[in-house]
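Project standup — Tuesday

K.O.: blocked on the structure for the chain from last sprint. Re-posting the sequence here as requested.
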Amino acid sequence: MSDSVPETEIRQDSVQEAVEAPEAYDPAVPAPLNVPRTPTGNADVDAQLARLADADHLATDGHVEVYEDVHGGLRDALTALDARPGPPVPPTSYQKAPSPPYHQSRS
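H.V.: unblocked you, prediction finished:
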């Protein structure tokens, strides 16, 4: 007599476990990273950060397109910040005195 379990019982147990077990982790399937995104207060930047969530549902080869899109959007947001006029410069309360004439000394 053998101590091993008959092969047919192993197959039945394996099938039963597979049916009862929750979905197994498959590293090939895209999964959300669930990285928290803290709002910055700048609507343009926040929209680009929210766009990063699109990569959660794509295969790895699809991430590049999302990252390049977000990078371009963030670059545009920074450029827009540079283009905005700052506060007006207050007028000076004095006028610059004219420079005295240049005198050349003779030696």
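K.O.: great, moving the ticket to review. The chain has a mean pLDDT of 75. Residues 31 and 56 are 6 Å apart (CA to CA).
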